Amino acid sequence: MQKSNDGFSRAVTTIRSPLHEVGCVLAWALDYARQGSPHVEILASPAIAHMPNEDEVMVWFGVVDSDIGTVRAATIALLDPEEEYAAMRLQHSADRCASLAAHAAVRLMLSAATELAPSRIRIYRGRYGKPLLAGGGLHFSLAHVRGVVAAVLARQPVGIDIERLTAVPDISAVAATIFAPESCKALDAVEGEARLAMFYRFWTLSEAFTKATGMGVFQGLDSFAFTGEGEAHLTRVTAGWGRAERWRFGLC
Prior knowledge:
Blueprint lengths: L1 H10 E3 L9 E8 L7 E4 L13 E9 L3 H8 L5 H8 L4 H22 L8 E3 L5 E3 L5 E7 L2 E7 L3 E7 L6 H8 L2 H8 L3 H22 L11 E2 L7 E3 L10 E5 L1
Parallel strand pairs: 3-4
Antiparallel strand pairs: 1-4, 2-9, 2-12, 4-8, 5-6, 7-8, 10-11
Helix pairs in contact: 1-2, 2-4, 3-4, 5-6, 6-7
């Protein structure tokens, strides 16, 4: 197992600087029916995760700048054959690298927490496609864009998303097709870099939230809304998912 982890760490580098310095934004969402806020641990490696306490969230993110041959060699022993097959079907080499790395990172985290070999971790898909750990007890989520990957582990339903801060032509038109009216109004009240940052704030939080609920796009990103600045909170929540205060969010 250590040998596989060494290969992974050579192919995928943990991000140690703030994410905005590499042009990315990350958000996580947690179903947290407790008082206070969860303890968030940013991992220096996915392989040093441990069984989280009820109030813990473990987050890891890294850069994938190796070629597909190196990444595939570093991850093939960690993955389920179906995960590798799905990743290798992606058209762009950078997308294949990111998918392999993200799935391998999740398996390394789960392996460290359960003391099972990464390849022995059994993962299945829920009703709406959310990946779940067979046997329960742990929840996880992964995300990737070209060159950057992220994963999260917790004892409650959790979701994560990571995006690159790239220009969005006609933000108002794009927002109107996906976000709640409250979010669109907030976006129209700001300009320039602040507007782009708010767009990605809403986007990553929304993606993380729908991953945590397990519904994905079926939930509809216009069925809930978030605060536009400061600490991230829901201001309105999809019916059936409890009070807004039940959910906790983080931005990196």
